[in-house]
């Protein structure tokens, strides 16, 4: 069997793996700066919020997910994501993405010590729960595992089994860093929605082709046609 392609979603003793997901989110006014060219400054925060809402709502509906912990200092995003059922914590380290993820993982473990934890980007508006469940099922077979982004350069998902440190190394060419750190790369067909992060207008169009969640779809419907099609 090829590493990273095992089936099943159970720990070695056949106990189903339960997950706490950690979702990092920048303050909306700062988020998705690379979308500016396509979406302009004014609507960019609304897109960032819609992406996060669709990501979190669908993550929460996964069978294996027990908690979604969002790390954000944005009050509007925190209120909206709490309403969906996420638990939000402030980005108290204030030291960038990886520090925020390590903090969120510690919070998640304090809440549910026996669960596996995984970092999931907040910019996956096409996320399909059944695809994330397949990723989680494979990730549950390894101490640490990750999924490369659609571009094949970065990472959209990084997991750690109960008791294992997450050691996030996101940013830029993180696929290589996560692999070099010993995390197993998950190589599954048919999980494009989990890999489809949205940084640019082209990414947004690719996500729309997969099918986005309702909040992102509504944002696109309200935007000038050139942004979304
Ligand atoms: N809490 C927190 N989240 C962060 C931080 N930096 C990035 N993120 C989040 O990490 C995820 C991946 O980041 P990016 O894809 O670069 O998103 P972004 O920073 O909004 O996009 P750009 O402004 O275009 O770089 C997104 O969900 C971001 O909101 C940070 O310092 N703190
Ligand atoms: C944060 C990452 O990428 P990007 O900022 O390009 O979405 C990453 O893939 O590690």
TrEMBL record:
Q: Which InterPro entries match?
A: CofC, MobA-like_NTP_Trfase, Nucleotide-diphossugar_trans
Short name of any one Pfam family annotated for the protein: NTP_transf_3
A GO BP annotation: F420-0 metabolic process
Quote the record's binding site residues for phosphoenolpyruvate. Answer: 155, 171, 174
Which UniProt keywords are present, listed alphabetically?
GTP-binding, Nucleotide-binding, Nucleotidyltransferase, Transferase
What's a Gene Ontology MF term here? GTP binding
Enzyme Commission number: 2.7.7.105
Catalytic reactions on record: phosphoenolpyruvate + GTP + H(+) = enolpyruvoyl-2-diphospho-5'-guanosine + diphosphate
Which EC main class describes this enzyme? transferase
HAMAP family noted in UniProt = CofC
Q: Which family does it belong to?
A: Belongs to the CofC family.
Role played: Guanylyltransferase that catalyzes the activation of phosphoenolpyruvate (PEP) as enolpyruvoyl-2-diphospho-5'-guanosine, via the condensation of PEP with GTP. It is involved in the biosynthesis of coenzyme F420, a hydride carrier cofactor.
Question: What is the protein's given name?
Answer: Phosphoenolpyruvate guanylyltransferase
- Protein source organism: Streptomyces tirandamycinicus
**Which gene specifies this protein's sequence?**
cofC
């Amino acid at each position: 069997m090829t590493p990273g392609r095992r089936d099943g979603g159970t720990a070695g003793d056949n106990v189903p793996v339960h997950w706490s997901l950690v979702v990092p989110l920048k303050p909306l006014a700062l988020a998705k700066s690379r979308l500016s060219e396509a979406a302009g400054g004014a609507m960019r925060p609304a897109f960032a919020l819609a992406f996060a809402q669709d990501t979190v709502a669908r993550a929460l509906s996964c069978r294996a997910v027990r908690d979604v912990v969002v790390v954000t200092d944005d009050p509007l995003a925190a209120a909206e994501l709490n309403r969906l059922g996420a638990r939000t914590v402030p980005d108290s380290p204030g030291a960038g993405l990886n520090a925020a993820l390590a903090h969120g993982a510690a919070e998640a473990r304090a809440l549910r010590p026996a669960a596996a934890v995984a970092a999931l980007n907040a910019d996956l508006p096409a996320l399909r729960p059944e695809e994330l469940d397949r990723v989680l099922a494979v990730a549950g077979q390894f101490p640490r595992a990750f999924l490369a982004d659609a571009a094949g350069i970065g990472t959209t998902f990084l997991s750690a089994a109960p008791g294992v440190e997450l050691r996030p190394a996101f940013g830029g060419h993180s696929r290589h860093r996560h692999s070099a750190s010993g995390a197993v790369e998950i190589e599954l067909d048919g999980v494009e929605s989990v890999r489809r992060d949205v940084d640019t207008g082209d990414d947004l169009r690719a996500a729309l082709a997969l099918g986005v969640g309702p909040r992102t779809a509504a944002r696109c419907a309200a935007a000038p046609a050139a942004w979304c099609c």
